[in-house]
Amino acid sequence: MSSENKPQAIASDNAAGNSGSVVSPSAGAPAPETPLGSVPNSKNKEKNEAKRLAKINKFLAKQAAQNQQKAAGDSESGAKKEKKSKEKEVKAAVPKPKPKAAVAVTTPKGEKKDMSQPMAESYDPAAVEASWYEWWEKQKFFEPKTGPNGEISPKGKFVITAPPPNVTGRLHIGHALFVAIQDSLVRWNRMRGLTTLFVGGTDHAGISTQTVVEKQVWRFEKKTRHDYGREAFVSKIWEWKNEYGHTILHQMKRLGTSFDWSRERFTLDETLTRATRETFVRLFDDGVIY
User: Fold this and answer.
1) Quick one: which of 62, 244, 259 has its CA closest to 141?
2) 265 - beta bridge partners?
3) Which of 23, 62, 138, 257 can pair with 110 through a Cys bridge, CB separation 3.0 to 4.6 Å?
4) What is the pLDDT at residue 290?
């Protein structure tokens, strides 16, 4: 090789060495670097796979336990049903005893109850309570006891005016509660010898009663008070009052309330209406109201 060609050969060799196309890894040169993240971490992969398999096994075990429990429950319920059906068959085979006839109440209305008849083997409210209230009323046990000239007992007096229930409907448990408490107090003081008075009645509750009647008329007849007219609708309200007012008084008697029925009033009775007008006129004349 001539001296002129030596620099060109050296330059070509250097260029080839820099490009890395000639030198192999076996010749001692470093291997090319791998890009970051291109190879997955084998340890993390194994851990994740183990966790996944553990979750699957846990789910399968739980499902198997539930299926086993369900099968046991089905067999148990089937056994219970079979047992109940057998019990029903046994009960059906046993002849039922004939119901015993209720004790007949032979006491005439208003007379003291005949207690000579044998008592029933079990409690029968209708038979136990029958006849007593009518006799109490006839004997006027609920009227206040006074002296020959109307004087009050030396032991004193005890008076309660029961809040009159509205004639908007039948009595409910709240009415039974206050009547039971008040009546107990009245009866206790009556037995103590005091002159007692328990006054009862019903309240017209004008607006509330009108509203109830209007709803009933619309519900069953699809009419309003304007369709009826004033006079006809007022008559409709009085029909309602007579029906439910009578029901309320009957309920009070069934509760055993010791009202003095000779003083029973309705808030629209003429005497009460006249007394109300008189009271308001006097209060106005005295300048108390305006």
Assistant:
1) 259
2) 201
3) 138
4) 86
- Model confidence at 99, pLDDT cuts 50, 70, 90, reads low
Q: Which residues pair with 266 in a beta bridge?
A: 202
Task: Say if residues 280 and 289 touch (Cβ distance below 8 Å).
Answer: yes
Contact 175, 165 (CB under 8 A): yes
Separation of alpha carbons 39 and 43, rounded Å: 12
Helix axes 230-254, 206-221, angle to 10 degrees: 110
pTM, two decimal places: 0.61
**Residue positions counted in the chain:** 290
Residue position matching structure tokens 């340890």: 43
Cα 137 from Cα 112, distance rounded (Å): 11
Distance of CA 31 to the CA centre of its chain: 85
pLDDT band per the 50, 70, 90 thresholds, residue 252? very high
Strand locations in 205-255 (E): none
pLDDT of residue 26: 46
Strand-pairing partners, residue 158, are 196
pLDDT tens per residue, range 204-233: 999 999 999 999 999 999 999 999 999 999
